[in-house]
UniProtKB/TrEMBL annotation:
Name of the protein this chain belongs to: ATP-binding cassette domain-containing protein
Domain called ABC transporter: residue spans: 4-231
Keyword annotations of the record: ATP-binding, Nucleotide-binding, Transport
Pfam family, one: ABC_tran
SUPFAM superfamilies: P-loop containing nucleoside triphosphate hydrolases
InterPro entries the UniProt entry points to: AAA+_ATPase, ABC_transporter-like_ATP-bd, ABC_transporter-like_CS, P-loop_NTPase
Molecular function terms from GO: ATP binding
SMART domains linked to this entry: AAA
Family: Belongs to the ABC transporter superfamily.
Keyword Nucleotide-binding assigned: yes
Organism of origin: Lysobacter brunescens
Keyword Transport: yes
């Protein structure tokens, strides 16, 4: 079951095509990392999902209903944080929330609950203007949580945080997901962060969804394409020798990369190199980290959009 789905979502700013047929599928209960470099179109997508931008082409369905059908009703079940949250700087966290609690007409007791959830219960009379960036982000999250949403839509919540703040934000989001069952759609350009945080990932590049599926499916994709990493005492000589033996190797900053071989062929190749007087420091499968997969997907201009595995 998908908590949020889009079909063929297209958006233009003037003549600039910024989203080119996006089919998002965010499974209920997931943490969906919406990943892409700056300018890929993430914020535009999230603004469309929240009805902050007028939909031009394509469909958006949330909790199984078209957004246009019941925008207000659906938004009541969504908490969001798009760009840096703004507050009354001269008011405390509690006072800021008390104002919004009246607007949202949620129970007063909810203020203490969300302050505790985001770890701001002890900030007392301290003004929001004196908060660290991490505390401001957490207060933004408290605002998003005030009306007890089923879905959180967050635009780069780790932006500008120090490493400690990033770890805290991740732990908090995972707790909200695990303990309260909140589905979270979170955009990021930080690949290692998405790898640690998310259960599912969508990779956006130049307005196209290049990959969508589970983190495991993404890594499985890499496994299929896995290459061998070779580092030697003389990479130039090794490259020439390999070419003569029908193993074209690609040179990069880490040494040589060549198409995957089975164990027997890899052992034979090792013997050939050593017999030619070339020291072999490393002969192993490429790292399967997301960074490399991401570069693979994004650099491969011919790659069609792929959906791997069942996103649900
Ligand atoms: N209001 C606007 N008018 C014109 N062009 C815009 C507008 N907003 C965004 N763009 C352009 O649309 C493209 C996508 O921007 P968007 O902010 O959606 O990307 P993003 O992936 O969120 O990037 P970032 O992480 O840098 O915010 C960019 O080229 C941007 O310059």
């Amino acid at each position: 079951m998908h908590c949020l789905q889009t079909r063929a979502l297209v958006h233009r700013y003037g003549n600039d095509l910024v989203l080119d047929g996006i089919d998002l599928q965010v499974p209920t209960g997931s943490i969906y990392g919406f990943l892409g470099p700056n300018g890929a179109g993430k914020t535009t997508t999230l603004r469309l999902l929240l009805g902050l931008l007028r939909r031009q082409q394509g469909e958006i369905a949330i909790f199984g209903h078209r957004l246009d059908e019941d925008r207000i009703g659906l938004l009541r079940r969504i908490g969001s944080m798009i760009e840096s949250p703004s507050f009354y700087e001269h008011l405390s966290a509690r006072e800021n929330l008390a104002l919004l609690q009246k607007v949202y007409r949620c129970p007063r007791g909810r203020i203490d609950e969300v302050l505790a959830l985001v770890g701001l219960a002890q900030t007392g009379r301290k003004r929001a203007g004196q908060f660290s960036l991490g505390m401001k982000q957490r207060l933004g999250l408290a605002v998003a949580l005030l009306h007890a949403p089923d879905l959180l839509i967050l635009d780069e919540p780790s932006n500008g945080l120090d490493p400690n703040g990033i770890v805290e934000m991740r732990a908090l989001l995972q707790r909200l997901n695990r303990e309260l069952g909140i589905t979270i759609l979170v955009s990021s350009h930080l690949l290692p962060e998405v790898e640690k945080l998310a259960t599912h990932v969508g990779i956006l590049h130049r307005g196209r969804l290049m990959f969508q599926g589970t983190i495991d499916a993404l890594q499985a994709r890499q496994h299929q394409r896995r290459a061998l990493r070779l580092r030697t005492g003389d990479d130039d000589a090794a490259q020439s020798l390999l070419a003569r033996h029908g193993h074209p190797a690609h040179r990069d900053v880490d040494g040589l990369s060549l198409p995957a071989l089975d164990d027997a062929d890899a052992a034979a190749l090792n013997r050939t190199l050593v017999a030619a007087g070339i020291d072999v420091f490393e002969l192993a499968p490429e790292r399967g980290d997301l960074e490399r997969i991401f570069m693979d997907i994004v650099e491969d201009r011919s790659t069609a959009s792929v959906t791997l595995g069942e996103a649900a």
